[in-house]
Amino acid sequence: MITMDDIIREGRPTLRKVAEEVTLPLSDEDKKLGNELMEFLENSQDPQKAEELELRGGVGLAAPQVNVSKRITAVLVPSLDPNVEEPEFKDVLYNPKILSHSVQGACLGEGEGCLSVDRDVPGYVVRQARITLRYYNAEGEKKKIRLKNYPAVVVQHELDHLNGVLFYDHINEENPFTLNEGVLVIE
Ligand SMILES: CNC(=O)c1cccc(C)c1Nc1nc(N2CCN(c3ccccc3Cl)CC2)nc(N2CSC[C@H]2C(=O)NC)n1
Ligand code: NI
Which residues form the active site (predicted)? Predict the structure, then answer.
């Protein structure tokens, strides 16, 4: 089971490497890793388990963050409406690729956090507001979906991890809170 001890932090070289594509059909090892990444997110979002296991809450976790340089990431974005059980987006992505995206940008109004960054780095991380994503799921099926707003931001943050990019690489040094015309601020 993955815990915070398995998550590597800034300064570890794997976080800055471009991860390797996984071969298809998926090996048992790659399927197991995908399940473990998802299990971490589920545990981290369960108040009791998060406290017991001392986990930081996360909605995305990529294989390079547990020192495995492979293009695998799990995403579990809960519905913002607490009465809705169904998550907004939940899947393990193998060899994910953004096929196209909107011109419009979007960012989280509160900035971004990362399980591999043990400090607050304030500022807007402007990403694409809408994306068309292609990936293979744990069953090896090729999926092509469109995402927008929070799930789209999370997937782009995780895909950055597969390319050795950290969220604060996108923050404007001069003014971290600069906002260009038309950028959607997600609260
Ligand atoms: C500096 N200000 C901030 O961090 C920040 C501050 C306020 C609001 C937001 C919205 C912020 N931003 C931000 N908050 C999150 N979470 C909110 C809490 N949540 C969570 C925590 C506990 C249980 C269940 C859950 Cl659901 C987990 C997810 N996650 C991300 N990111 C960036 S994209 C990948 C994703 C990620 O998983 N990071 C670890 N950013
Ligand atoms: Ni991260």
Answer: 158
Residue 157, annotated as binding a ligand: yes
Element (H, E) at 97: strand 89-101
pTM equals 0.98
CA 85, CA 71: separation in Å to the nearest integer? 29
pLDDT tens-digit readout, 97-126 = 999 999 999 999 999 999 999 999 999 999
Q: What is the ipTM of this complex?
A: 0.98
Nearest residue to 107 via CA among 44, 172, 162: 172
For residue range 30-57, what is the model confidence (pLDDT) as tens digits? 999 999 999 999 999 999 999 999 999 9
- Establish whether residue 164 lines the binding site of ligand 1, counting it when its CB lies within 6 angstroms of any ligand atom: no
Q: Return the half-sphere exposure (C-beta side, CA atoms, 13 A cut-off) of residue 120.
A: 4
Looking at ligand 1, which residue's alpha carbon is closest to its atom 24? Answer: 45
- Kindly list the structural domains of the chain, giving each domain's residue range(s) and its CATH number in brackets, ordered by start: 11-183 (3.90.45.10)
Q: Known binder of ligand: residue 170?
A: no
Per the CB < 8 A criterion, the answer to whether 133 and 19 are in contact is no
- Nearest atom in ligand 1 to the alpha carbon of residue 78 is 26
Mutate to test the pocket of ligand 1, among 42, 110, 187 (most ligand atoms within 8 A of CB): 110
Q: Is 33 in the pocket of ligand 1 (CB under 6 A)?
A: no
